[in-house]
Design brief:
The structure holds 2 protein chains of 2 kinds.
Chain A (H helix, E strand, L loop, with lengths): L3 E2 L5 E2 L41 H10 L1 H17 L15 H18 L9 H30 L7 H5 L3 E6 L7 H10 L3 E5 L2 E6 L6 H18 L6 E9 L3 E3 L7 E12 L10 H6 L4 E14 L9 E11 L4 E3 L2 E22 L5 E8 L6 E5 L2 E9 L2 E3 L5 E3 L8 E8 L2 E10 L2 E3 L7 E21 L2 H19 L4 E8 L2 E8 L3 H12 L8 E2 H5 L1
Antiparallel strand pairs in A: 1-2, 3-23, 3-24, 4-5, 5-22, 6-21, 7-8, 8-9, 9-10, 11-12, 12-13, 12-21, 14-15, 15-18, 16-17, 18-19, 19-20, 22-23
Chain B lengths: L1 H28 L17 E3 L5 E3 L7 E7 L4 H17 L4 E7 L4 H11 L5 E3 L4 H6 L6 E5 L5 E6 L4 H11 L2
Classes of the chains: A alpha+beta, B alpha/beta.
């Protein structure tokens, strides 16, 4: 690592092309390149300064754009691989993951699982990749924006000859008798919104320097965005839960530490109606008669007062009443409740009549609350029904014993004992949906099905996202940076008088065609010849 | 001087970035654990009324060991471990170990039927509003927590317990 010493005596850092002190072109010595590398104003990237300690080595690694690009490529490829087979969270919960991938996708699937691609996006190495991109962004930006800022701030109004000659757009005009009309050039420049600096007759006209900061503004936006994504892990910043509530039921809202309760007053599912709805829907409804018009939960939100323990009767205060529809969530404080799912006609109550099988005479009816059945139903006049057993979600197990699969009354079954004046010990009867089994085989009485009551269940998504603001602001700054860098060009024009000649050189960070056209209109009628594109001459 | 300053600045920036990375990794790896009750920390307190009408507040059991079991009548593994729990309970009750069996919100009828069927002698209570389950982040059943005499959760087990496992659990929290 050697510093570069300039003729003027100034010692420049490694990689310098133009002396920091005097502006002479120094470069690699032989001076064979015709054009200057004007990227980052020919100043060295910071990282190339020194490379001694481990800190410098890490820094330099991340400072490389090549490394940054590779990190992005690797992340893209990895992300793509993660979509070949479904992620673990999307596979059916009934099969263990290690069996599922092999069974569904063969050896390749097994390999996929073994290599951990089934949980790719939360794997440690994927997170390290993303974080490395973030680190690369920060360091690349710092290493480039600081020298660039310094170089542009300290740029010379009248750079040395070597500098002008080696610009891409460069030209010499002999200063004849009628003379180059410098004042009108200056006027033209000013009318194109150039800011003009003069030093002993040398002119530097410059505009839109702020466009050079575009990429760095853009990176700041990205970093804020990444930071916002990181914040999701911080407790209290992000909640995404599901809440199932039956009609009439009040439930604690998960993710709120027991602070909020939600009551489902009513769930409504509306279909488009051929006779009532607009004529324009008729054709569509003919093809598909059941089209959903509306999902809606009439909900009441309560906040818990004071500090009650779980299980204790909480003191609830009504804070919000709303009709939750798809895309019209109930919002309270930072929580939003979205309509996301439903279950219609869940059985709630079942009605029976006690009848004489032969005469069909009814001795009274009973209603069984499937969520809270009673042990005994007294029908009066000596008629009584005992509930001996209850299976809310009935099936026969491997030993042909009646069991229940769950606590939800999807397929309720009952064992009744019907006590009547003439059968004081009672007759047992097993009653399920469309099925009656009589253990004794010759009952006189029967529990006749007499209707059901159903209720709807609503599925709500509980969402709280405090990171959204970071994402929005980060995204906005990102876009500002893109616009700033893309829609403006940083343009500079140097004009110098030298021994009866007028020299002109120009530089832009992009859009050379536009630059040439602008110079053309500035120089028209001023006797100064347009500079030539030295890149064209070369080829 | 400038060199030294640069080294310091670079080190600080790298450390900040590394800290963010480490936090992200740590938070991600412990994500599943935050969905569980913290071990060796105070057990979330609750109040439930058992089937006989007696109120039980967990914090009242300080000084005793508590086996907290979440179960459902339809759940086969729960059904299997219940008789073991009852027989161990009879041994350990005098030694200061209590069992609180929390049903996950079924009907009184089903729970009472189950108690009668297995002649359970320990207090059984129903968590009708799922609040206690939320507090203990209960998902698959059965799940058993053991709480020592200071009110700390010592261990948790998801799945059916054998009689010897219950015995060793009870020995661990015996005051």
């Amino acid at each position: 690592m050697k510093e570069v010493k300039c003729e003027c005596g100034h010692i420049n850092p490694v990689g310098t092309v133009i002396c920091e002190a005097c502006g002479r072109v120094i470069g690699d010595g032989d001076g064979s390149e015709k054009l200057l590398d004007m990227r980052y104003e020919a100043s060295p990237r910071r990282s190339q300064h020194y490379n001694k300690t481990i800190v410098d080595k890490i820094w330099n690694f991340f400072s490389s754009v090549k490394v940054g690009v590779w990190l992005i490529v690797i992340t893209l490829v990895a992300s793509a691989v993660g979509t070949i087979f479904p992620q673990e969270m999307y596979i059916p919960p009934t099969i263990p993951a290690d069996q599922y991938y092999k069974q569904e996708y063969g050896t390749l699937g097994q390999l996929y699982y073994q290599l951990g691609f089934d949980n790719l996006y939360s794997s440690w190495w994927y997170m390290i990749l993303i974080a490395s991109i973030g680190i690369s962004l920060v360091i690349c930006s710092l290493d480039r924006v600081i020298p660039l800022y310094k170089a542009l701030k300290n740029q010379r109004t009248a750079p040395r000859e070597g500098f002008l000659e080696k610009q891409r757009l460069f030209g010499i005009t002999e200063d004849s008798a009628d003379g180059v009309d410098i004042p009108s050039i200056k006027q033209n420049l000013a009318s194109k919104r150039y800011s003009i600096k003069e030093e002993n007759g040398s002119i530097l006209a410059e505009k839109n320097r702020f466009s050079r900061w575009g990429p760095y503004v853009n990176h700041i936006g990205l970093i804020i965005f990444l930071f916002g994504a990181l914040l999701r892990f911080v407790p209290g910043m992000y909640v995404d839960e599901t809440l199932w509530v039956r009609e009439g039921e009040t439930k604690e809202v998960p993710g709120t530490d027991g602070k909020l309760y939600l009551k489902n007053e009513k769930f409504i599912r509306q279909l488009y109606n051929k006779s009532k709805d607009d004529q324009v829907f008729q054709d569509a409804l003919k093809k598909n008669p059941a089209v959903i018009k509306n999902f809606q939960t009439n909900a009441v939100l309560y906040e818990k007062k004071g500090d009650t323990l779980p299980g204790e009767q909480p003191e609830l205060k009504k804070v919000e009443t709303d009709k939750i529809q798809v895309n019209r969530p109930l919002k309270y404080k930072h929580f939003a409740f979205y309509q996301s799912d439903y279950k219609l006609d869940e059985m709630n109550k079942m009605k029976f009549r006690l009848i004489d099988k032969k005469t069909q005479t009814s001795f009274g009816g009973l209603t069984i609350d499937l969520y809270d059945p009673k042990k005994d139903y007294n029908l009066g006049k000596g008629y009584r029904v005992e509930l001996l057993n209850y299976f809310p979600d009935f099936e026969f197990d491997e030993n042909s014993e009646p069991v229940t699969k769950s606590r939800i009354p999807n397929n309720p079954a009952f064992v009744f004992n019907m006590v009547t004046p003439d059968r004081p010990k009672g007759e047992a009867s097993f009653v399920a949906i469309r099925q009656t089994i009589e253990p004794e085989g010759n009952n006189k009485y029967k529990m006749a099905f007499n209707g059901i009551e159903t209720q709807n269940v609503t599925g709500l998504t509980v969402r709280k996202d405090m990171t959204l603001w970071f994402l929005a602001i980060g995204g906005a700054i990102f876009m500002i940076g893109v616009v700033q860098g893309a829609y403006w060009n940083h343009r500079r024009i140097w004009i110098q008088r030298k021994k009866g000649q007028v020299w002109i050189a120009a530089h832009t960070n992009k859009n050379w065609y536009g630059m040439k056209r602008e110079i053309h209109s500035i120089l028209t009628g001023t006797a100064l010849q347009e500079p030539k594109d030295q890149l064209d001459e070369k080829s | 001087m400038a060199k030294k300053q640069r080294l310091v600045v670079r080190t600080i920036i790298l450390l900040l970035l590394a800290a963010a990375l480490v936090y992200a990794l740590y938070a991600n790896l412990t994500k599943d654990k935050t969905k569980q009750v913290k071990m060796n920390a105070a057990a979330p307190d609750f109040v439930l009324t058992d089937m006989k009408g007696t109120k039980h507040q967990l914090s009242d059991y300080k000084g005793k060991g508590v086996v907290l079991n979440f179960w459902g009548t339809w759940c086969k593994p729960c059904e299997k471990e219940m008789p073991y729990m009852d027989s161990q309970y009879k041994d350990f009750k005098a030694k200061g170990v209590e069992i609180l069996a929390v049903n996950v919100g079924e009907s009184n009828y089903s729970v009472q039927n189950f108690i009668d069927q297995y002649h359970l002698s320990f207090p059984v209570m129903i968590d009708k509003k799922s609040e206690v389950q939320n507090a203990y982040k209960v998902d698959p059943l059965p799940v058993t927590f053991i709480i020592d005499k200071t009110g700390k959760v010592i261990d948790q087990f998801t799945g059916s317990l054998s009689e010897s496992q219950i015995n060793s659990f009870m020995n661990r929290i015996k005051p």
